[in-house]
Amino acid sequence: MKKLLASLLVGAFLIAPAYAQQLAPIDGIAVVVDEDVILQSELDRAVANIRSQYAGRTEQLPPPGVLERQVAERLVLLKLQVARAKSTGVRVSDQEVDQTIGAIAAQNQMNVDQLTAQLARDGTSMPQFRDSIRDELLVQRLRQRLAQTQISVSDAEVDAALAAQQGAGSQYHLAHILVALPEGATPEQIATAQSKIEGVRDLIQRGEMDFAAAAVRYSDSPNALEGGDLGWRSADEIPSAFADMVKGMRPGQVTEPIRGPSGFQLLQVVESRDAAQAGPSLVTQYQASHILIRADDPANVAKAKAKADTLHARLVGGADFAALARENSEDPSSKSRGGDLGWFTQDQFGPDFGSQVAALSDGGISAPFRTQAGWHIVKRTGSRQADVGDESQRAQIRETIGRRKLEDEWNRFLREMRGEAFVDFRTGAADAEQADSTTNGN
């Protein structure tokens, strides 16, 4: 949860200044995105935010027109994701936004009033910040929905990954540069992209620019402004096209250009290290039952909450939990068992659900609380320390494979969504690629 909140806070401070349409005076349109627009003032504030993050090292930033185009593309993608989330029924309530903001304030050792004051000093109003948090949560839920509906990992894949891990214990800190290609690229577009990626590699090889600076200036990846950083990855988290190549590289080395599904890439091994050998894996497990009242339709949220409150009052009055769950729960997987969920770890059903269970004592019943699934009442019946050993290792590998698949599918989804959208740049950013196309070593 802390990692998520930190990520939301960083994203919010980057994006929030760009979302003040309702507060800003009428100004020029920078980009038309389907039926929405990005105002020039939004784009200017977002660019200024990036420049402030690079204070003291602005030489790493691309020329103004290229930077404006990169930031504009980020805003375009954000608008498209938010619009897609809303059109597919994803919703974020005011209460959920309030809870997230409260948690962010607490994580930064502030109350909400202090956070509001800090935002104002940074040039962001609380309404802007709330909008950015809501957008981040919408995108997060859109990604979760994609994971639930499109991503699966078979036992055979887990077995193969376990076998591949035998004798391999290295992790790699990676960075990449992407020169993107559109779907159905023409031979001319392919040749141009290949020439550009080769030119970028020549600049790096000659020492005229380090890898991170080249990524900021030339990469088409969404993480370009972070220097193309991909973080630490184990061998099974690296796409098979790169894995064998990476294993033979030393820190600082850069691959030859590689053609992938999204375009041409350069990959750098920043660092490498030996992963710690797995030992006994002790985790806290909980046994609990729950009653779920779904609230998928925003119009029924209040009705679902009222029903949950009524059931909770009956439980406080001595009603049998299992009987009420069988009669009223809308979770088909546990309803027939009186709501019994068996033994599970705290994060197995999501952080919101897990934190409620962890806060109870054995035998305790929670007040109604809401998650993305609906309103829950939970009765905790037991807790224990368990050595999950091989089970834990398999779960970690399954999660790793799923995360890699989701990353690939999400990137494909974003490319497809961007390719289908009507996007009209009304600023100098539209000519940025031409202004910075001389990357053939000149």
UniProtKB/TrEMBL annotation:
PANTHER family: CHAPERONE SURA. Residues 326-345 are annotated as: Disordered. The PPIase activity resides only in the second parvulin domain. The N-terminal region and the C-terminal tail are necessary and sufficient for the chaperone activity of SurA. The PPIase activity is dispensable for SurA to function as a chaperone. The N-terminal region and the C-terminal tail are also required for porin recognition. Residues 327-338 have a biased composition (Basic and acidic residues). It comes from Lysobacter concretionis Ko07 = DSM 16239. It is an enzyme of class 5 (isomerase). The keyword Isomerase applies. Residues 1-20 form the signal peptide. It is found in: Periplasm. This is Chaperone SurA. InterPro entries: OMP_Chaperone_SurA (IPR050280), PPIase_dom_sf (IPR046357), PPIase_PpiC (IPR000297), PPIase_PpiC_CS (IPR023058), PPIase_SurA (IPR023034), SurA_N (IPR015391), Trigger_fact/SurA_dom_sf (IPR027304). The keyword Membrane does not apply. Chaperone involved in the correct folding and assembly of outer membrane proteins. Recognizes specific patterns of aromatic residues and the orientation of their side chains, which are found more frequently in integral outer membrane proteins. May act in both early periplasmic and late outer membrane-associated steps of protein maturation. Residues 169-271, 283-382 form the PpiC domain. GO terms for molecular function: peptide binding; peptidyl-prolyl cis-trans isomerase activity; unfolded protein binding.
